[in-house]
């Protein structure tokens, strides 16, 4: 039991040091390891299995809206990157460059993609000729490189995995419709699958994506009261099309520029799952996304019939659930701690006494509640229990989020709320970037979004006192 205890004690309490708690969890749960390439992470099987489930479910949802998958090159010629001025300026500080091929210096530097707008534009320029070629609704699953100064597993690394959607449309209306449509795909995915509640809204001019006409975001609140931008969708208008000369002939045989969108969600969403649901024992994974939903743990497995019954349970459940049997020679207590550390939603305990009674014990990871269940009722009980856990995790996260939203009506209230009640702050804004800059300089808080659901909670800007134009959600963020 000493070893069992040590496994849990090796995680720093989230109340003591949330940042260290997070690092402990991703390491102890074996989601990642550090690599010899500074700022880059090794995603281990447990972490990658999460990404595979995310990828599988999102990809299915994308395809339901008509999206097709493609793949673009890893490298972008410097001349191509420079075609859209705002875009290149936005990414210039983070770009990694390839200058040599083997022993020879390249005639033109190649950028290792930080994002692929320019590549898609170069492709569309030749692929789109007529209105009959539109729309183009593409997505790619890939990695990108951004030379971040400070890194943290999943949340910010120099190379990370993501999907990036890129679409081209005949009209501005179609582009706007697709931009909002994909944002709501992300919203439903986060809430229904990850059990992470989000707030949808538009980014301010200061916070929008480089080169975009408008950027929309889903913002989630972590357990420590910090925000996490969890997915974005951008309307590019015809700006990129004009820079790259992407034109098509319309039904009147007139040349028109296409209207484009881009949207993405990355492995940082795994950080959201950890920080929204985790506790001092480790991960708490929503059943819908958990690589292993059920762990069968035999008690006194050396006794006759125990392992046989555990394996029989596995055979009964494997077609309906993602289930494993822990038949290692570790002690039951160690196995319980490990199952909790890894966030497996339910464990099934079965030992000699349970077998005698024709039952087993189902234990919830999130609440530790135990349910003595007849063996023949396990599949039905387990299905209901996993659904209940999924719903409860969402409601718990939503209650936490909602209880950490404050309204501020003047600057003193704003600063006090930030320091004494970490979370989102709803406050009115005049629309002047100078106020955004001042708030960030004074408090490190940023505008997270202008929520789609607008209210006029005050007539004046929380910062300068001038007439207010928009309700903004503010907060400190990862």
Describe the overall structure.
This protein has 478 residues and is an alpha+beta fold. It is built from 15 helices and 23 strands. A hairpin with a 5-residue loop joins strand 12 and strand 13. It has helices at residues 2-9, 18-28, 45-64, 78-81, 85-91, 117-127, 172-192, 239-244, 268-277, 306-317, 332-341, 352-357, 378-403, 411-420, 433-443; strands at 32-34, 41-43, 68-69, 75-77, 96-101, 104-112, 136-145, 159-169, 199-202, 214-221, 227-237, 247-249, 255-257, 259-266, 294-298, 323-325, 346-350, 359-364, 370-374, 405-407, 424-429, 446-451, 470-475. Strands 3-7-8-14-11-10-9-22-23-21-20 form an eleven-stranded mixed beta sheet, sandwiched between helices. The chain has a five-stranded mixed beta sheet with strand order 16-15-17-18-19, with helices on both faces.
């Amino acid at each position: 039991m000493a070893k069992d205890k040590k496994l849990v004690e090796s995680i720093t309490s989230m109340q003591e040091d949330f940042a260290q708690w997070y690092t402990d969890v991703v390491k102890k749960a074996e989601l990642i390891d550090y690599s010899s390439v500074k700022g880059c992470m090794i995603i281990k099987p447990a972490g990658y299995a999460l990404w595979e489930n995310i990828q599988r479910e999102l990809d299915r949802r994308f395809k339901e809206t008509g999206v097709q998958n493609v793949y673009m090159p890893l490298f972008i010629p410097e001349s191509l990157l420079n075609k859209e001025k705002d875009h290149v300026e936005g990414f210039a500080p983070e770009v990694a460059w390839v200058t040599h091929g083997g022993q020879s210096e390249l005639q033109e530097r190649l950028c290792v993609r930080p994002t692929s707008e320019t590549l898609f534009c170069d492709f569309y320029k030749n692929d789109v000729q007529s209105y009959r070629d539109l729309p183009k609704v593409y997505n790619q699953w890939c990695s990108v490189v951004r030379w971040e100064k400070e890194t943290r597993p999943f949340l910010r690394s120099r190379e990370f995995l993501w999907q990036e959607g890129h679409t081209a449309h005949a009209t501005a209306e179609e582009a706007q419709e697709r931009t909002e449509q994909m944002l709501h795909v992300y919203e439903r995915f986060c809430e229904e699958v990850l059990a992470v509640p989000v707030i949808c809204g538009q980014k301010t001019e200061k916070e929008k994506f480089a080169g975009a006409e408008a950027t929309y975001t889903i913002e989630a609140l972590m357990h420590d009261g910090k925000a996490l931008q969890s997915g974005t969708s951008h309307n590019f208008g015809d700006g990129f099309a004009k820079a790259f000369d992407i034109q098509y002939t319309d039904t009147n045989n007139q040349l028109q520029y296409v209207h484009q969108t881009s949207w993405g969600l990355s492995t940082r969403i795994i950080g959201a799952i950890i920080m929204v649901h985790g506790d001092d024992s480790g991960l708490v994974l929503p059943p819908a996304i958990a690589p292993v939903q059920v762990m069968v743990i035999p008690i006194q497995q050396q006794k006759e019939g125990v392992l046989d019954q555990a394996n029989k349970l596995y055979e009964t459940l494997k077609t309906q659930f993602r289930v494993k049997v822990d038949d290692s020679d570790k002690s039951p207590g160690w196995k319980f701690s490990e199952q909790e550390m890894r966030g497996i939603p339910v464990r099934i305990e079965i030992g000699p006494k349970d077998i005698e009674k024709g039952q087993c014990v189902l234990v919830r990871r999130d609440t530790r509640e135990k349910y003595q269940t007849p063996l023949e009722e396990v599949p039905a009980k387990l299905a209901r229990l996993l659904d209940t856990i999924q719903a409860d995790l969402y409601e718990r996260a939503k209650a936490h989020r909602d209880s950490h939203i404050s309204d501020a009506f003047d600057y003193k209230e704003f600063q006090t709320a930030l320091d004494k009640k970490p979370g989102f702050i709803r406050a009115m804004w005049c629309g002047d970037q100078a106020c955004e800059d001042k708030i960030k300089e004074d408090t490190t808080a940023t505008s997270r979004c202008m929520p789609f659901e607008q209210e006029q909670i005050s007539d004046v800007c929380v910062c300068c006192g001038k007439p207010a134009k928009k309700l903004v959600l503010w907060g400190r963020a990862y």
